[in-house]
Write a structure and sequence with these properties.
The complex is a heterodimer of chains A (about 220) and B (about 220).
Chain A: H1 9-16, H2 22-34, H3 36-55, H4 65-75, E1 103-104, E2 108-111, E3 114-120, E4 128-134, E5 143-144, E6 149-155, E7 158-160, E8 163-165, E9 170-173, E10 178-179, E11 182-183, E12 189-195, H5 203-213
Antiparallel strand pairs in A: 1-3, 2-3, 3-4, 4-12, 5-10, 6-9, 6-12, 7-8, 7-11
Chain B: H1 11-15, H2 19-24, H3 27-31, H4 37-50, H5 53-73, H6 78-95, H7 106-122, H8 146-164, H9 168-177, H10 184-191, H11 195-213
Helix pairs in contact in B: 4-5, 5-6, 6-7, 8-11, 9-11, 10-11
The chains are: A alpha+beta (about 220), B mainly alpha (about 220).
């Protein structure tokens, strides 16, 4: 499978820097899981971080910091094993590994052939991130955004004025994009979507989602 | 030497330190023998395999002052930066056996640990504690190949060289982008330049990095 749509250099650099919000970071993590090209790009941006760290001047440390750290190492417990924290509703798809610590809500009705599921990221309750499911052939309402919208296709396909998006593709749509996505005819489409920061959706979709999702 | 190279720790830049950098370093640090990338790898390896405390002490001596300085530059106060630095070094100790020189250089690995600790602190959560739990990327998935290690070392080297050739205004923007969750608007205020200029410098820097690294991206 060839992935055609990738996160921008700027997005990857911000993520490498730890400056992307929790929602977009989750969507991009899911993309990276399936995209070796972007994992390699990401490794380059993280190496920029390594170079910056190497170039930092030395800050003076408390004289006993090393000693205190060694004391804490003596007391350190073995690594806890990761437990799955939440029960999963039956969503009809296998969740990417990057989502394994998220709370995932059940599918909820949003409109004819149109459902959503709330995703909660531990520690970031305000992240605007959700799964969206549209039945084959569904026309999603036209909308624009005040900031960036990230959308990773998990199954099925989606198309808009700018192109077609298949599983593994990530669409990054900025405030310059007004689009009217349509679900492919062959099957239902499930995607993971996040809005950056205080981005809002314009148009009918925004009015539809706002009472439910707070978008 | 290009002005930009003083922003980034190119290994060569360290051997021939720019005078401006020396001012901020104390006497002891000037005389410090800085470990090479290969030495750093063998130090982490010794910590991972044998819990070698001397190796850890050397890693601590090299990284802790830099991590603290990075965190303070990212907006943490002195005491908070020191607290997080301690967490970072504890994570280095605990995760050393998972370090994979086929994925990243040691400095890059420590950077990602520091970055994650800072995110955790900013998001005010104890529950994520990314570096105390194993995350999936820690799982050793394939046996180490010498080829991966070479590719990684070349990437680290290539990135440093590319950064050193960026014009200094672009290098500044890239560097500021790595300090804290700083939106471009804030960077613009800090530098006293218009937001559009920040955005275009980011774009220029990224496309230049991309060109320089294009052989392997």
């Amino acid at each position: 499978m060839t992935i055609k749509h990738h996160p921008s250099d700027e997005t990857l650099m911000r993520m490498a820097a730890g400056a992307l919000g929790a929602g977009p970071e989750l969507v991009v993590s899911v993309h990276l899981e399936g995209c070796a090209v972007c994992r390699n790009r990401m490794a380059h941006f993280e190496a920029v971080g390594g170079a910056i760290l190497d170039g930092m001047p030395s800050a003076p440390l408390a004289a006993d910091l090393f000693g205190r750290t060694m004391e804490r190492l003596e007391a350190v417990q073995p690594l806890p094993t990761r437990e799955r924290m939440v029960k999963r509703p039956e969503l009809g798809l296998e969740l990417p590994r990057a989502m394994q610590n998220c709370e995932v809500g059940p599918w909820k009705w949003l409109g004819p052939g149109f459902q959503w599921s709330k995703i909660k990221i531990v520690g970031s309750p305000d992240a605007k991130v959700m799964l969206i499911k549209g039945k084959a052939g569904l026309h999603l309402p036209a909308h624009g955004h005040t900031g960036l919208e990230f959308m990773q296709i998990l199954s099925g396909s989606l198309a808009d004025e700018r192109g077609q998006y298949l599983p593994g593709d990530l669409d990054e749509a900025g405030s310059d994009v007004d689009h009217r996505p349509v679900v492919g005819q062959d099957s239902d489409c499930i995607c993971l979507a996040a809005l950056e920061g205080d981005t809002r959706l314009h148009g009918f979709l925004g009015r539809l989602l706002r009472p439910f999702v707070g978008f | 030497m290009d002005a930009a190279s003083s922003y980034f720790g190119t290994r060569n830049a360290r051997q021939v330190r720019p005078a401006a950098r020396l001012v901020v370093l104390n006497e002891a640090r000037q005389k410090e023998v800085l470990p090479s990338p290969e030495e750093l790898i063998s130090l982490v390896d010794a910590v991972g395999r044998e819990q070698d405390r001397n190796a850890f002490a050397r890693l601590f001596g090299y990284f802790a002052p830099r991590v603290k300085s990075f965190l303070m530059r990212s907006g943490l106060a002195d005491s908070a930066a020191e607290e997080v630095t301690q967490e970072v070094m504890i994570a280095v100790w605990r995760k050393a056996s998972y370090f994979d020189p086929g994925k990243a250089g040691v400095s890059t690995w420590v950077f990602t640990i520091a970055r994650n600790q800072r995110i955790d602190r900013l998001r005010r959560t104890r529950s994520r504690t990314a570096d105390n739990l194993l995350d999936p990327s820690d799982e050793p998935d394939m046996p180490l190949s010498g080829e991966d290690i070479t590719i990684t070392a070349e990437r680290e080297e290539g990135v440093r060289k590319a950064l050193a050739t960026l014009p200094s205004d672009q290098a500044t923007i890239v560097r500021l982008s790595f300090f804290a969750e700083k939106p471009h608007a804030e960077i613009a205020r800090e530098l006293g330049i218009p937001l559009g200029t920040v955005k275009s410098r980011v774009r220029l820097a990224l496309s230049r990095l991309r060109t320089l690294l294009d052989s392997d991206i």
